[in-house]
Amino acid sequence: MQLKLPELGEGVHEGELIKWKVQVGDQVKDDQLICEIMTDKATIELPAPFHGKVTQLMAKEGEVVHVGQVLLEYDSGAGASTSKAPTASTPSASKPASQAPAPMAAAAAAPVQNKGSSTSLAGVNAAPQSSAPAPQGASLNSDILAAPSTRKLAREMGIDLSTVQGSGPAGRIMREDLDKGSASRGTGAVTAGAPTMARSAYSRGPSAQTEERVPFRGLRKKISEKMRLSKDKAAHFTYVEEADASALVQLRAQAKEIGAKQGVKVTYLPFIMKAMVAAMKQYPILNSTLDEEKGEIVLKHYYNISLSVQTDDGLMAPVVKDVGNKSIIELARDIAVLADKARNKKLTMEDLTGGTITLTNAGTIGGLFTTPVINYPEVAILGFNKIFKKPHVISQNGKDEIVIRDWTYFAISLDHRVVDGAIAAEFMKVFINYIENPSLLLLESI
User: Which residues are catalytic?
Assistant: First the structure.
């Protein structure tokens, strides 16, 4: 029987197979994790919807797999397995030495690990080696059993495959073998056969300068693709406004005490989210997407705010659902749960889909303001920055006075195809009013 890649979420049609958690011959139980699939901004752990024995893996680690594509074959035990490993003998292995393929041909046979068993691959690579010199451009390691993706990674890491002990079937070199080999080598010299990779040093004056090349893949690559799509599709412009956050600071301090009694950490984000919703109710165009195929602007009458969360692996954007109907404490709890799941790689597709607008927060790090990139296909992303104290002039009783206030800046990037500059300015005016007078948010629920 076959397991095909299921739907991964709204608008998600493919993902990168990051890691297999099962191998051929493993007995898998229902709901057991079988592999990790990386989509636009998250790594999804795919559970098995069956109980049985894995007979064949039909995709390689590092391969982009599509919805509906066969990932593996298995025997449920109900009858004969639908996947039978071929015999070890192959045409190339049965040829005499004079007709044996050149090392390049053996390398070309390596990619078929998803179409045959490891035994058949061993047979291919066990063919007698021709004494003729390898064709120009052939790898010196082409007679070593390893997939093309593994060979490419080895080149990027500056590792000579002949120095690596393979842990896979028939001695096949796996990706994790490269990691082990790299760790054992430490900062030693790079093999001469590894062109342009890892560390190259040259002298300039009294000191040496070094370079290190890191493979551009996984989450970092997905973020790159998402940002490039946003820049290619949306017509970005950014509007910045300042705000007196003194009243917000005081209200948050009170809410923080209430939240602590309930075991919830209350940050500024729930208040900002509520202010966003209150302002979007007056300017709903910011809570929309553009359906270019149908030529329609889709106005969303619900408020799901994507929240940018920085993790060790990169930026993720889990979605806080139904913001308009939740309290500050409820939002604080949701934010904490999502942030924890993001940092521990536990986010699900449900956590990552359905967003209508995005909030990004750089305030904990610093910075005056940002020019955030739109989380396409949304049309707006709001950037919240640090709160700091500064002298401010206020007028009271006809006199100007200098006081110390808590201050901050907000920057909103919008898709100019959908939102005009005047609308952005009006939205920010309303939004800032809620930030400076957060008690007004209470009136929204009356």
Answer: 416
- For 94, the enclosing helix (H) or strand (E) is helix 91-94
- List Cβ neighbours of 127 (8 Å cut-off, separation of 6 or more): 92, 93, 95, 100, 101, 106
DSSP category for residue 146:
B
Tens-binned pLDDT, residue by residue, of the chain (446 aa): 999 999 876 667 888 898 999 999 999 998 899 998 887 656 788 889 999 999 999 999 888 899 999 999 999 876 444 443 333 333 333 343 334 433 333 333 333 333 333 333 333 333 334 344 433 333 344 457 766 557 767 776 778 887 888 877 667 787 778 876 655 554 433 333 333 344 444 445 555 788 988 878 777 777 888 889 899 999 999 999 999 999 999 999 999 999 999 999 999 999 999 999 999 999 999 999 999 999 999 999 999 999 998 888 788 899 999 999 999 999 999 999 999 998 888 888 889 889 999 999 976 777 788 899 999 999 999 999 999 999 999 888 889 999 999 999 999 999 999 999 999 999 999 999 999 999 998 776 64
Contact between 8 and 15 under an 8 Å Cβ cutoff? The reply is yes
Cβ burial, residue 209 (10 Å; 0-12/13-18/19+): exposed
Q: Among residues 256, 253, 245, 239, which one has the least CA distance to residue 386?
A: 245
According to DSSP, the β-strands at 357-361 and 380-384 are parallel
Dihedral (Cα; 28, 32, 33, 35), 10-degree rounding: 30
Q: Pairing between strand 207-210 and 201-204? A: antiparallel
Q: What angle do CA 242, 246, 247 make, to 5 degrees?
A: 115
Compute the distance between CA of residue 271 and CA of residue 423 in angstroms, rounded to an integer.
22
Give the integer Cα–Cα distance in Å for 181 and 315. 29
Using CA atoms, how far residue 163 sits from 69, 103, 129, 182, 400, in Å, is 35, 18, 20, 11, 77
Q: What is the CA radius of gyration of the chain?
A: 28
CA 41/CA 225 separation, integer angstroms: 10
Phi, psi of 45 (to 5 degrees): -90, 115
Q: How far apart are CA 237 and CA 420, in angstroms?
A: 10
Q: What is the pTM of this model?
A: 0.59
Residues 6+ apart with CB under 8 A from 136: none
